[in-house]
Design brief:
Number of helices: 4
Structural class: alpha+beta
Oligomer: single chain
Distance between the termini: 64 Å
Radius of gyration: 21 Å
Order of helices and strands: HHEEEEEHEEEEEEH
Length: about 180
C-alpha cells in the first residue's frame, strides 16, 4: 500500500509540474510583460518576406528563429522577435543591402527609417497586430581574429530581425517617430 501511495504521489507531482508549464524551472523574467498576442505576433513576424531574402552567394545558418519575450539571455531580457542569419561569400556595402531589402520591405508596408552613417544597419518600422515593430537588417565584414596565437577567419554575415519596438532607447524611438511610425 505504501509503494502504491508513494508511486501515486510521485506521478501526481510530476504531472502537476508538467501541466503547470514547468513554471518552477522557467527562464521567464518576473515583472516583464509580453505582448498579449505574442504567439500571433511571432506568426506574423515569421511570415515576413524579408526573412526569406538571401543575398547572392550566401548560406543560411539555420531556419528563422522565433524568440519569445521576457526570457533571460545572459545580462539581457529578450523581446518578441524572429531572426535569421546568413554567412556571406563577400563583404557587402550599405547600397547593396538597401537595394536588396528595401523593395521587399516597402512592398510589405514597412517604412524606411533614417540611416546612421556610422552603423551597418538599415531599419524599417510599422505596426503589426497593433504592436509597434521594427525590421532590421544588420551586417558585418569578414574579419581575421587573433587569440592565443591562433588566427581565425570570421566570415562576413548579414542578419534580418523582425521585432517589437519594446525597450528601445530614446534615440531609436525618436528615429521611428521621425519616420512616421507609431510611438
Amino acid at each position: 500500500m505504501d509503494r502504491l501511495l508513494s508511486g501515486t504521489l510521485v506521478t501526481l507531482v510530476v504531472t502537476s509540474v508538467a501541466t503547470a508549464g514547468c513554471a518552477i524551472f522557467s527562464d521567464r523574467v518576473s515583472g516583464c510583460v509580453s505582448p498579449s498576442n505574442e504567439t500571433q505576433l511571432l506568426d506574423e513576424y515569421a511570415a515576413e518576406r524579408a526573412l526569406a531574402v538571401s543575398p547572392v552567394g550566401s548560406s543560411r545558418r539555420e531556419e528563422p528563429q522565433r524568440r519569445p519575450s521576457c526570457r533571460r539571455m545572459g545580462e539581457h531580457v529578450s523581446i518578441a522577435a524572429v531572426d535569421v542569419r546568413y554567412d556571406l561569400s563577400h563583404d557587402v556595402s550599405r547600397d547593396e543591402v538597401q537595394a536588396l531589402y528595401e523593395p521587399v520591405a516597402t512592398q510589405s508596408g514597412w517604412t524606411p527609417m533614417p540611416i546612421r552613417a556610422d552603423q551597418k544597419t538599415v531599419r524599417f518600422c510599422r505596426t503589426v497586430l497593433g504592436e509597434p515593430s521594427v525590421l532590421e537588417v544588420g551586417w558585418d565584414d569578414a574579419k581575421t581574429l587573433r587569440s592565443d596565437g591562433k588566427v581565425e577567419r570570421d566570415t562576413a554575415w548579414i542578419a534580418v530581425v523582425v521585432r517589437t519596438a519594446q525597450d528601445e532607447g530614446a534615440e531609436q524611438a525618436a528615429e521611428r517617430e521621425a519616420a512616421g511610425c507609431q510611438p
